[in-house]
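Hi C.,

You asked whether I'd gotten around to modeling the 471-residue construct. I have! Everything is below, sequence then structure, no commentary in between.
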Amino acid sequence: MAEVDKQTPVPAGDTDEQVEKSLYAKAAKIYPREVHGLFARLRVMGVLSLLGIYYITPWLRWEGHQALLLDLPARKFHIFFITLWPQDFIYLAALLIIAGLLLFFVTAIAGRIWCGYACPQTVWTEAFLWIERKVEGDRSKQQKLDAQAMNARKFRLKATKQILWIAFAGWTGFTFVGYFTPIMELGQRLVTFELGPWETFWVIFYGFATYGNAGFMREQVCKYMCPYARFQSAMFDRDTLIVSYIPERGEPRGSRKRSDDPRLLGLGDCIDCTLCVQVCPTGIDIRNGLQYECIACSACIDACDDVMEKMGYEKGLIKYTTENTMHGSTSHIIRPRIVIYAAIMLAIMSLFAWSFSQRVSLGLDVIRDRNQLYRETDTGLIENVYILKVLNMDDTAHRYKLAVSGIPGMEMRMDLPEIRVESGDVLELPVRLQVDEDELKARSSEVEFTLVADDDPTLSATESARFLGPR
């Protein structure tokens, strides 16, 4: 019982001295009890699915390359059938904005379901807790082990757990770097101890971050480091789904026998078993009301429902509900903030889809030579010099034809016999335009360069520039 008191937040009525002590005292280790039930199974399915995606995806192949590879040295991102370049950064930014809006949208409807089921901190913490239980045993065995003086058995169990944690964290760091360096090549270099300094740094850094956050800090990350818990209230309203204890039904709480009638004893349905506290990964007492530390993992729901079933009471003393439902009002899924989030998200997604459908895997930049406005050739023509930068963003090499328009009788001169650019390469092409002075109607005239692939007319790009003359 003393341990439960340590995990229970300081009540609002405590003195400033007690509050200060609670803030600066060393945080007591939380031993979450293993729980079984519907939401626990959903959480396990989510953890296995997300970890499977994370660890398997870098090993997938697509058309001769790694299916998902953010190749920074080569400045291209392979995302299955899509290859993005630095010029396509706007698409990555749009995806992040859509993901953020989706998080706001889901939070406004279902509360902190992201935190409880899909957040990386939650997912890896669940994995580390599973390893800990397999090595040291359940909650009571872990508490007894930690209370013992160091001996051979305790050292063996602790060392085994740490070795497994470190191995798992190291594999996590290796996989993370595998999203930026081809993972097969990375694995070969790891085996032969030929990893580069930056690759070594990031494997160790990400592995250490996983080891520290999921193995030791755990709930401290959610309570003190994660900003999401701090601004989530801006997305909550009285219709947002939350995990809540129903005090009207549960109070006054108290222990009793299964055969006792709680109404005759003047008690509510809560038997004060504290299992809802013992299973909570952040160590809060959900019976104290909604708290920012709650990550909506619903472990307390499974634990309480199990107790209610054993006592012969109706389930749902702790459940997913809304404030309006708790106070007898009608809850609404469709409401102004939901409509606004959905409308903004739909607009950005539509714009993203349209823009991406118009995307051409060819880039053309025209830079006019600024060292000389124009010059007159030996034949009396007015000449301007340009540098064309041709970027082939396709997965194969292409030959291109270049045409120019805008001034009658204009002639184009190039130093290269043909324009051929390998996949991912940028070709700098000097081009000279020559015009009879009589064709110039002004000092500055607009010209257009058009580049078209020989083997695919849909790969074309047009860029305008200015032609300067004496008039």
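If it helps when you're writing up: The longest strand covers residues 382-392.

Thanks,
B.
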